[in-house]
Amino acid sequence: MGTMMILDALTGKALPYVVSVVVLLLSTMSGVIWLLMQERDSLNESLGTLEQANKQYTETIQLNATDYDALQAELQLRDSLVSQALQAQQQAERKANETAERLRKALQADVCANTRHPDAVTNSLRRQPTGSKDED
Question: Residue 65: which domain range?
Fold first, then answer.
């Protein structure tokens, strides 16, 4: 009985404090839970926005890769054409040099070609058109 009285006395005096602490703890926990839920909602919204941006970036990267491949193919084609043109030019220059060398050798023995012409003859030759209609 003595124990019961002590227990009743303690519960009677401590009960309001225990209830207050429990209510305070419950309200604090509910507030923390509410804040965590708000933060979770905010993070979910951010996640949605980031996923959408990620999709857009992925699409842009794919488009850029396609454009890059097209440009790379065009550059390879241009490089090939430039290489062909350069080879054709070098071949034409070789032929021109060979022709000039043959003409030089052929004209070395020609007395007329190695003699200086009068200025009047040179001027007359310069004024004449190369393809005259009299030859037709």
Answer: 2-110
Query: For residue 136, what pLDDT band results from cuts at 50, 70 and 90?
Result: very low
Total tally of structural domains belonging to the chain? 1
| pTM across the whole model | 0.45
Cα distance between residue 134 and residue 136, in whole Å: 6
Top mean pLDDT of 7-11, 89-93, 112-116 is at: 89-93
